[in-house]
Amino acid sequence: MKAYTTYHLPLDLPEGHPFPLYKYRGVAEALRGLLLLEPAPEVPKEALFLAHDPLYLERVFREGLSRKESLRLGLPFTPAFLRRALHAAGGTLMAALDALEEGLGLNLAGGTHHAFPDRAEGYSLFNDVAVAVAWLRRRGFSGRVLVLDLDAHQGNGTAVFFGQDPTVYTLSLHGERNYPLKKERSDLDVGLPDGVGDGAYLRALEEALEKAGAFRPALVFYNAGVDVLKGDRFGRLSLSLEGVAQRDLRVYRFVKEVGAALVVVMGGGYNRDPRLTVEAHAATYRLALSSLA
Ligand SMILES: [Zn+2]
């Protein structure tokens, strides 16, 4: 089984920046031997243009982001950052093609759900899932799609991308008081209070999946952010490693029950203990393999 990676691509971050660059390499190394690691290819420009506002893209490619836009992105816009974003989106696109062929596709990157059609935000330059869906549609895939976003933050960009699309159901389970403060409207939003632990989280997930199951998706994109873990710098929730594993297993059982293909993208994870971030992300992929491959 293949998985796409971007860990080999350099990124220049300012000293002390909280972006967890380490985890991309860490997760790839934790899974080496279990998975065939493939460098994610650059996403075709044509795919980006199917999803994003062309004026936004042309500006990004011509001159990059302004200072103000970089602040909103939370990262300095550099050629290296652009390159990584192109490859991360390419990984999700390839994983989506794998999923349609083999039932499961894995990207050890992606999940940049704060990117809007016409702007960048929250570490997200391109919305990899929206780009992949647009590409699949162009290639003739017409099945119903569920975007199951279990990152601790609302998938606000994704909600806007698919707000008018009845063939895509967006479900976001997130911290209600957490970033982004202004929430967009997904098909189903479940806002959790700060500090929620395993039990309450898993009950909320159960209820949400029941509703999403009625949509009968043929393809599921799972944003498996692990910033729900206790000790995360930005997550404000309080799941244990075991709770995150239970979450993932519940998702994989759901996918089997509805008979959908699955794409797993990485999402956020910023634990104060970097080993926990890596372990939680790696477990998500390991469990996907043992449950679905
Ligand atoms: Zn997040």
From TrEMBL:
Pfam families for the chain: Hist_deacetyl (PF00850)
Family: Belongs to the histone deacetylase family.
Example GO BP: epigenetic regulation of gene expression
The keyword Transferase is assigned to this record: no
Protein name listed in UniProt: Deacetylase, histone deacetylase/acetoin utilization protein
Annotated organism of origin: Thermus oshimai JL-2
Domain of life: Bacteria
Keywords: Hydrolase
